[in-house]
Amino acid sequence: ILESAGYEVELATSGEQGLEKARARHYDLFLVDVEMPGMDGFTFVEQVRADPTLLSTPAVLVTSRASAEDLARGKAAGASGHIAKGEFDQVDFLNRIRGLMR
Question: Is the pLDDT assigned to residue 70 strictly greater than 90?
Answer without folding.
Answer: no
